[in-house]
């Protein structure tokens, strides 16, 4: 990622106005730098923003405001761009990129925050003065036009009708690419009301969840310790109300790790599935950075089992080793598809296998504000091929009678149902679906007809994790 490039000019140079007076306040400057790095350099907001906040020495309310502006602007980019195009009278893509990013931040403040309109306009014009000095008059005029309506009125003016073009309407109104809206609607059985609730949830700030590692921490006690609340579904989950989770002693000393509750549930489901015969050899075929391996490793420790955690990317394999220190886990930095070729990955050897496959990540858009704009439908072909190959390798690795859990953090049916059905069909081994619903906590609502399970942000407060559990015959 190219996040380091944001600081090519010093903060003082960028901020100095006439007479050395700081022209732009530091949180807005930081948000601008982050949004520009994401749009210009393909940086990731969750990596670049913390670096900028550190470099600028922003903490507390200033850091929170910069974060809100950055994430909000990136999430709402589609709607903001449509509005800016209309307000500017020209395609937003034809506006000079630094001025365009400043306008996006200004429009976000006008339409989605309580910042008074005059402050949003004047601070953005100040910003434009430093990044595109010839465009201050243009920026002022565009933002005054934007400020003339609230966001609902803009959507009403610009979006197609919900009756004749529901996907187009939802895409513009809730700032998701059309192909993503279509994929969500399909995965939700065509229910556009539910699709709308999902899109709204995707634009919210996601909560931080901790996983209290079984045998090392208790969720209720950990919730008391960190001032959080025990999770609604996972017995290991703790909901944090705020603050930096990395600073918590429980995380620093390995009793807990940061992990979405949905990820906890699908990993724990593999461990909970009934199994006859030996149960000591567990395999995680796509382990980096080690969230699910951390939970499975802790469960393995309680059951005298050992987890082999495979990760193809070297730096991510190192993260897995860090995340599983002290647990009965062997980390292999290799390609999971080498089952049967790598002596450490023999065929018909493992009792329980997790394939947490690389995917589009459309189920965790809340956490990665830029990813909805970066992902393309054309990504699907290569990803689904890799998913099929990895699931095929898992089915070779598992012993007859053993279990394979196939997991994605995407609800796209091509990555979920189609991949599982195709991989099982091509595997050449007998495979049965295990009903995954009873493997999740009793009473969990909205789990559908089975045998697979799809979790949803708007139904469960989790990422949209998909789970299929297969038993090799
Ligand atoms: C969705 S992530 C896994 C997340 C992880 N299970 C966790 O809970 O932290 C998929 C991982 O698979 C890895 N990967 C991609 N292709 C692979 C392959 N052929 N063999 C093994 N790992 C692979 C990626 O580098 C990435 O770290």
From TrEMBL:
Low complexity bias (residue ranges): 1-10
Gene Ontology BP annotations: regulation of DNA-templated transcription; RNA methylation
Gene Ontology MF terms: RNA binding; RNA methyltransferase activity
Family, as annotated: Belongs to the class I-like SAM-binding methyltransferase superfamily. RsmB/NOP family.
Residue ranges of the region described as Disordered: 1-25
Binding, S-adenosyl-L-methionine: 286-292, 311, 335, 356
Function, in words: May act as RNA methyltransferase.
Lineage: Bacteria, Bacillati, Actinomycetota, Actinomycetes, Micromonosporales
SAM-dependent MTase RsmB/NOP-type domain residues: 184-473
Record keywords: Methyltransferase, RNA-binding, S-adenosyl-L-methionine, Transferase
Name of this protein: rRNA small subunit methyltransferase B
Family annotation (SUPFAM superfamilies): NusB-like, S-adenosyl-L-methionine-dependent methyltransferases
Active site: 409 (nucleophile)
Pfam families the record matches: Methyltr_RsmB-F (PF01189), NusB (PF01029)
CDD domains to which the protein is assigned, alphabetical: AdoMet_MTases
InterPro entries in the record: MeTrfase_RsmB-F_NOP2_cat, MeTrfase_RsmB-F_NOP2_dom, NusB-like_sf, NusB_RsmB_TIM44, RCMT, RsmB/NOL1/NOP2-like_CS, SAM-dependent_MTases_sf
Species assigned in the record: Micromonospora costi
PANTHER family: NOP2 YEAST -RELATED NOL1/NOP2/FMU SUN DOMAIN-CONTAINING, RIBOSOMAL RNA SMALL SUBUNIT METHYLTRANSFERASE B-RELATED
């Amino acid at each position: 990622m190219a996040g380091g490039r944001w600081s090519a000019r010093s903060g003082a140079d960028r901020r100095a106005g006439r007479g050395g007076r700081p022209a732009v306040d530091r949180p807005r400057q930081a948000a601008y730098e982050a949004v520009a790095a994401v749009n210009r350099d393909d940086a990731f907001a969750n990596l670049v923003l913390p670096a900028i906040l550190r470099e600028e020495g922003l903490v507390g309310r200033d850091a929170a405001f910069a974060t809100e502006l950055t994430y909000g602007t990136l999430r709402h980019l589609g709607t903001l761009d449509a509005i800016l195009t209309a307000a500017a009278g020209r395609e937003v893509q034809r506006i000079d990129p630094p001025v365009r990013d400043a306008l996006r931040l200004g429009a976000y403040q006008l339409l989605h925050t309580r910042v008074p309109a005059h402050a949003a306009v004047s601070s953005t014009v100040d910003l434009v003065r430093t990044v595109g000095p010839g465009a201050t008059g243009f920026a002022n005029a565009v933002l005054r036009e934007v400020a003339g309506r609230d966001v609902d009125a803009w959507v009403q003016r610009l979006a197609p009708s919900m009756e004749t073009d529901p996907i187009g309407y939802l895409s513009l109104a809730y700032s998701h690419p059309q192909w993503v809206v279509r994929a969500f609607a399909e995965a939700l059985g065509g229910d556009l009301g539910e699709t709308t609730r999902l899109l709204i949830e995707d634009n919210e700030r996601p909560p931080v969840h901790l996983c209290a590692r079984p045998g090392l921490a208790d969720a209720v006690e950990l919730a008391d310790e960190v001032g959080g609340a025990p999770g609604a579904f996972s017995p290991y989950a703790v909901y944090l109300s705020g603050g930096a989770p990395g600073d918590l002693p429980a995380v620093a000393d390995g009793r807990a790790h940061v992990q979405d509750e949905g990820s906890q549930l699908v990993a724990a489901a593999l461990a909970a599935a009934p199994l006859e015969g030996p149960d000591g050899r567990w395999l995680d075929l796509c382990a980096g950075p080690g969230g699910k391996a951390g939970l499975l490793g802790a469960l393995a420790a309680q059951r005298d089992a050992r987890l082999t955690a495979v990760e193809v990317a070297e730096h991510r394999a190192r993260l897995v080793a860090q995340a599983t220190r002290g647990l009965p886990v062997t980390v292999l930095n290799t390609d999971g598809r080498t089952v049967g070729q790598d002596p450490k990955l023999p065929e018909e050897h493992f009792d329980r296998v997790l394939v947490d496959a690389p995917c589009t990540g459309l189920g965790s858009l809340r956490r990665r504000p830029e990813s909805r704009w970066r992902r393309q439908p054309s990504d699907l072909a290569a990803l689904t091929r890799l998913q099929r190959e990895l699931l095929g390798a898992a089915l070779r690795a598992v012993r007859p009678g053993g279990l394979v859990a196939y997991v994605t953090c995407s609800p796209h049916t091509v990555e979920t149902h189609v991949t599982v059905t195709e991989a099982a069909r091509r595997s050449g081994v007998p495979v049965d679906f295990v009903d995954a619903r009873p493997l999740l906590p009793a009473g969990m609502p909205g789990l559908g007809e089975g045998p697979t399970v799809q979790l949803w942000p708007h139904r469960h407060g989790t990422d949209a994790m998909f789970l299929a559990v297969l038993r090799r015959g």
